[in-house]
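Subgroup meeting minutes
Present: P.N., E.W., G.H.
Scribe: E.W.

1. P.N. recapped why we're keeping a running log of single-chain structure predictions: easier to compare across weeks, and new members can see raw inputs and outputs side by side.
2. G.H. added today's entry (241 aa).
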Amino acid sequence: MDQKPKILIVDDSAFNQEMLSEILEEQYEIIKADNGFEGLQVVEKDPHGISLILLDYYMPHMNGFEFLKIMKQRGWLSQIPIIMITAESDGEFIDQAYGYGIFDFIVRPFNVSIVRHRVENTILAHAKQKRLQYLVQKQVKEQGKQSDMLINILSHIVEFRNEESGQHVLNVRQLTKVLLKKLTEIDPQLKLDNETIEQIALASSLHDVGKITVPSKILNKPSRLDPEEFEQIKKHAKKRI
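Output recorded in log:
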C-alpha cells in the first residue's frame, strides 16, 4: 500500500486542527503542531517527508509570517509548499503573505470542497515545479558536459596542429584554476564561486584557438620566422571561430 502524503497543520486552535483533519485524513497523513516552534521542530526532523504545511497566521509567541521567515532562512520554504489559514481578506495582508512565500490561502470558515481542491492542487503543482527544476538542472549539466567535451577536442586539435603535447592544455587549465582560487583568497571582493572558476578554466583551454587559421608551415617552422610570418602568427590571438 502506498504511503499517504504528509500534511503538517500548524495552528494553535484545536478546533481548526480537528476540522482540517476530518476533511483531509482520508487521503493524507496528518501531523499537528500547536504553535510555530513545534511546527519548526517537526520540519527539522523530516524536511523532505512533508508534502504540505497548513499554517495559521494568528498564533501566540510566533505568528505565521515569523514562521515563514525562519522557513526561508533554513532553506525549507523552497522544499515545502505552504497554504496559509486565515479569516483576513485585506489586500495588503494577502500581498504581504505571498511576498513571504506562501503558495495559497484557505479562508475560515472552511469549505470542504475548497480545502480539498486547494490542498490537492498545491501538492501537485509543487511536485510539477520540482520536476521541472530537476529537468532544467539536468539539461544544464548535460550541456555543460558536452561543452567541456567539445572544448577539449578543439583545444587538442590546436595542440596537434602545433605539434605540442596535449598536456599543455591540461596544464594551462589547472594553472588557471589555481590562480583564480588564489585571487579569491587575496581579494574577498572578487566573488568567484567554484562553478564560475571551472567555467573560466575550461575556457582557458581555447587560449590558442586562433592557431587553427595559421598555416602549418608557419606554425611548425623549425627556423626563425621572417618578419611577414611573425606578423601573421601574432594575429592568432585576435582570431575568432
